[in-house]
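--- STAGE predict ---
source: upstream dedup step, 1 unique chain passed
mode: sequence only
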Amino acid sequence: MKYKIALFDLDGTLVDSSLGVTNSVRYALEKMNAPIPENLLRFIGPPLTVSFRDFCGFDEEKTDLAIKLYREYYAEKGIYECSAYEGMLELLKDLKDLGVTTCLATSKPDIYATRVVRDKGFLPYLDFLSCASADEKTLSTKEQVVEQAISFVKGDKCDIVMIGDRHFDINGAKCFGLDSIGVTFGFGTEDELRSAGATYIAKNPQEIKRIIIQ
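--- STAGE serialize ---
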């Protein structure tokens, strides 16, 4: 077994959350009478505080309002507008059977991330959940989430691998000297993942499993 501990991103890795996230962003911006950026998929991955600042040019006050409105839609409808990627639930089951420790490592706030993994059936196969804080300020970046995950799993870094679909996941792993698997079925491109320095690239859950147990 090459890796004994696997950290999994959520959006774009375990679940396709594109519809719920983009609908929530659109709802917030329409309520604010603000222009809607062309590529709303960019909002998947980074914390909302970063996305509304960088992609909409909002100051702190407008960002806080946008997040409040985003959550207004997301909590009622957006959270359910997602689907598990084919084969990912089976992958987690297989890893658990093999004795691999699994941990969610997501920048999505814990109040929502927990609901998603429970609703999609992942929760019984995750040993730990490392998520952003509810305010997305106290703890929000992928680096902070990965650091918290490492403290939960308490394993040697050489035994840990981070699995994610964006450069945020790869950079979060590199920050602590962890290997990483960039997945191409999410919202990032293979070029993005390779440029970020992903240790491995996987095109499907079967390839993720082969890398972990090689």
